[in-house]
Design brief:
The protein has 297 residues and is of the alpha+beta class. The protein has six helices and 16 strands. The strands form three sheets. It has a six-stranded antiparallel β-barrel. The chain has a five-stranded mixed sheet with strand order 8-9-7-1-10, with helices on both faces. The chain is globular. The model has no long low-confidence stretch (mean pLDDT 94).
């Protein structure tokens, strides 16, 4: 088991008698039926159906309904502010937990008996479990778990190897639909729940199958292209590179936001696809229900 403190994650807490229904009415996933200790991946969307925020939501074991949102640090304050905007008369309290930190445990049996908020990452079992601990107790929590302490880059190498995207690294907030960021593939959208902001657009994409752009795994000739590098076929841009594995022993793998139809056309015609000027091949993550065109052997 490995343990990595994720300094780019933060915690927003939502509590109060109306907390469950409040979050359920806003989030892309069903929150109201979460049991204490269970978590779901979810997002808040714009009216146009694009991702403004995404987070892991865990229900706390508390008599008063309370939820901890494990969110990217870069937009934690903005998320707390947005939730406050929607609060109106709901009986909820929204707090940015400056005193909390997030640790990812992965690559082995989950820690037992850890004095923390511990929950399985709801996106994919290979991502392991998360722990929300007091910021002052990070080192003690890792030592108590018996896990091998590693840097966040090791966790991200694991994430990238599994094909799981992360906001701001692999897609832009405010510009990306949930299907493009694989939220529909990773349990981040409940297509049977009631209304939420942006639902009509997301439902239409689901039922019409109109998601032509997806985040996929890519391999290139070394060195791996930088994040943001253009992916081109025949001089036409068909995608953008996201995060890449940075450990020296790893193969040159990364994630990319790619137009699948244009990539398929290039493969069919034998046109080289270049990422940052380097030839690349795309594949779908193992968990994906969609296909990516395969190059002939």
């Amino acid at each position: 088991m490995k343990a990595a403190h994720l300094p780019d994650r933060a915690v927003v807490q939502v509590s109060g008698p109306d907390a469950a229904t409040f979050l359920d009415g806003l989030a892309t996933s069903a929150i109201a039926d979460l049991q204490p200790g269970a978590a779901r991946y979810a997002g808040l969307l714009s009216p146009q159906g694009k991702i403004l925020f995404d987070f892991l939501c865990v229900r706390l074991e508390d008599e008063t309904p309370a939820f901890a949102l494990d969110v990217p640090l870069l937009n934690a304050d903005a998320l707390a502010k947005r939730l406050g905007f929607y609060k109106l008369r709901a009986k909820v309290e929204i707090a940015r937990r400056e005193d909390a930190a997030v640790i990812a445990f992965f690559g082995g049996a989950p820690p037992a008996g850890l004095d923390a908020i511990v929950f399985a990452d709801p996106r994919l079992s290979g991502l392991g479990v998360r722990a929300i601990v007091p910021a002052a107790d990070i080192e003690a929590a890792i030592a108590e778990s018996g896990a091998e302490k590693v840097g966040p880059e090791v966790y991200h190498a694991q994430r990238i190897g599994l094909g799981v995207p992360e906001g701001a690294r692999d897609f832009l907030y405010g510009e990306t639909f949930p299907h493009e960021a694989l939220m529909d593939q990773l349990g981040g959208v409940d297509f049977a729940k009631g209304c939420y902001v942006g639902q009509e657009v997301v439902s239409r994409m689901q039922h019409r199958g109109t998601a032509r752009t997806r985040i996929v795994k890519v391999t290139t000739v070394p060195p791996a292209p930088e994040a943001g590098a253009a992916i081109e076929a025949g001089g036409i841009r068909i995608g953008t590179m996201g995060s890449r594995r940075e450990d020296e022993d790893a193969s040159p793998e990364g994630l990319a936001l790619l137009r699948l139809d244009r990539y398929a056309d290039a493969v069919a015609k034998g046109t080289p696809v270049l990422a940052g000027g380097r030839e690349m091949t795309a594949t779908a993550p193992a968990f994906a229900s969609f296909a990516v065109a395969a190059r002939p052997e």
